[in-house]
Design a protein that fits this description.
Strands 2, 4, 5, 6, 9, 10 and 11 form a 7-stranded mixed β-sheet that branches. The protein has 124 residues and is an all-beta fold. 0% of the residues lie in helices and 48% in strands.
């Protein structure tokens, strides 16, 4: 499956953005999906994940209560709604697909397909 992330941009502190990640085929519906981010000079870190059905979601402590992950299996798309953005949220955001969910949703090594990333910059 190919993943295409979009929706990044420049936003002021406290603002909102919604990222989208579109998948190329119906196999999307069988994958758990995750969002990760990587800031300059830092390692890639987990942001959020969602199960195949969308019933369960998982978040890093740094975004819990501010970000929301969701998916539309009919549109083959996963979303990341980001609210109350902070300068520390500045990073390239990547979506990823896990073919065999059930392990740790927060580990990047468990994901099999990755999108190219979209830049989010939060200015103060």
């Amino acid at each position: 499956v190919q993943l295409q992330a979009s929706g990044g941009g420049l936003v002021q502190v406290g603002g909102s953005l919604r990222l989208s990640c579109a998948a190329s085929d119906l196999s999307f519906r069988t994958y758990a999906m995750g969002w990760f981010r990587q800031a300059p000079g830092k390692e890639r870190e987990f942001v959020a994940a969602i199960t195949r059905s969308g019933v369960r979601t998982f978040y890093s402590d740094s975004v819990k209560g501010r970000f929301a992950i969701s998916r539309d299996n009919a549109k083959l798309t996963v979303y990341l709604q980001m609210n109350r953005l902070k300068p520390d949220d500045t990073a390239v955001y990547y979506c990823a697909a896990d073919r065999y969910p059930g392990g740790s949703y927060s580990s990047s090594s468990g994901y099999d397909y990755w999108g190219r990333g979209t830049q989010v910059t939060v200015s103060s």
